[in-house]
Design goal:
41% helix, TIM Barrel, eight-stranded parallel β-sheet, binds NADP nicotinamide-adenine-dinucleotide phosphate, 14% strand
């Protein structure tokens, strides 16, 4: 009987549900990905975030498949939420069609993909538009259940929302978010348009775990700094994606549903914002007319 803890679900603008906490697979080697995905599912995680660019879609799907086969009565495909992303180099209608086919082939053991994100807006209007048309078709044919974006700034979202043939709105914008990077305006824009927000690098890539205020909060709540950061993300209404390749960290990173931060502590952490990025920042990638203006 599967009695491990599970994350609550939130409803996306597609009508489908997503667990509020997932596990990230950036930099997880393909040959470890299956075991980590399998162990994560046994721990209680039900949402797994991969990408073509991480070169581990096959491994993650393999781990999910192993877990499903182990106990078909209790371990159900419909309870697992698998995400992948379209690499920037495959923007454009035909290229994205092919990239999707490849991702679906690599993950065919799990039958369909729950969410495909445009990994970043870094191409041009025509290519981004072509990519979105291909993704909309994948939703129509059922091979992909939800589509969204990642690293889209307000200008990229406005562009997408104004496509003349827009049929499917993005369900999610996946962004780097943590107390040192709160992106309030972009977050507000997403909320206003019913786009849920996933938080990547929610642990600051372990760069800020020794922050004195964070350490104090950890002691106050009897939790680790990593757990406080994940809880902050949840308390902000984000869907955090902490990554680990260390099995002993899986359970603690998931053990965040038995407490909440006091409003004053959320505020204290919000006050850390200094627009600090530990990853890339394609949210500022210029639109076509901005590029022309710069010439
Ligand atoms: N869309 C995008 O452009 C984009 C960009 C970046 C990330 N992401 C997604 O978001 C996920 C998370 O982001 P991220 O991987 O950049 O960073 P992160 O989750 O903030 O940090 C991961 C780092 O923290 C360490 N760590 C994990 N749990 C820990 C704990 N309890 N105590 C101390 N250290 C701990 C990990 O080490 P070990 O692995 O050695 O445990 C790893 O070095 C990615 O894996 C990916 O799925 C998306």
């Amino acid at each position: 009987m599967s009695n491990e803890p599970k994350a609550p679900l939130v409803k996306l603008n597609s009508g489908n549900y997503i667990p509020v906490l997932g596990i990230g697979f950036y930099l997880t080697p393909e040959d470890e990905a299956a075991n980590i995905a399998y162990e994560a599912l046994k721990t209680g995680y039900r949402m797994l975030d991969s990408a073509e660019a991480y070169a581990n879609e096959r491994g993650v799907a393999e781990g999910i498949s192993r877990w499903l086969k182990e106990d078909p009565t209790h371990n159900k495909r419909e309870d697992v939420f698998f995400t992948t992303k379209i690499n920037d180099k495959f923007h454009g209608y035909e290229e994205t069609k092919k990239a999707l086919k490849d991702s679906l082939e690599k993950t065919n053991k799990i039958g369909y993909i729950n969410l495909v994100l445009v990994h970043s807006p870094q191409s041009n209007y025509e290519k981004r538009h072509g990519t979105w048309r291909a993704l909309q078709e994948a939703v129509a044919d059922g091979s992909v259940k939800n589509i969204g974006v990642s690293n889209y700034g307000i200008k990229h979202l406005k562009e997408l929302l104004s496509y003349p043939d827009l049929k499917v709105k993005p369900v999610i914008n996946q962004l780097e978010l943590h107390p040192w990077l709160t992106r309030d305006e972009l977050v507000d824009f997403c909320r206003k348009h019913g786009i849920a927000i996933e938080a990547y690098s929610p642990l600051t890539r372990a760069k800020k775990l020794d922050d004195p205020d964070l350490v104090k909060l950890a002691s106050k709540y009897g939790k680790s700094p990593a757990q406080i950061l994940i809880r902050w993300s949840l308390d902000k209404g984000f869907i955090p994606l902490p990554k680990t390749v260390h099995l002993p960290r899986l359970a603690p990173n998931f053990d965040v549903f038995d407490f909440k931060l006091d409003a004053e502590d959320v505020k204290l952490l919000n006050g850390k914002n200094e627009d600090l990025k530990f990853c890339w920042d394609p949210t500022v990638y210029p639109l076509d007319n901005e590029k022309t203006e710069k010439k």
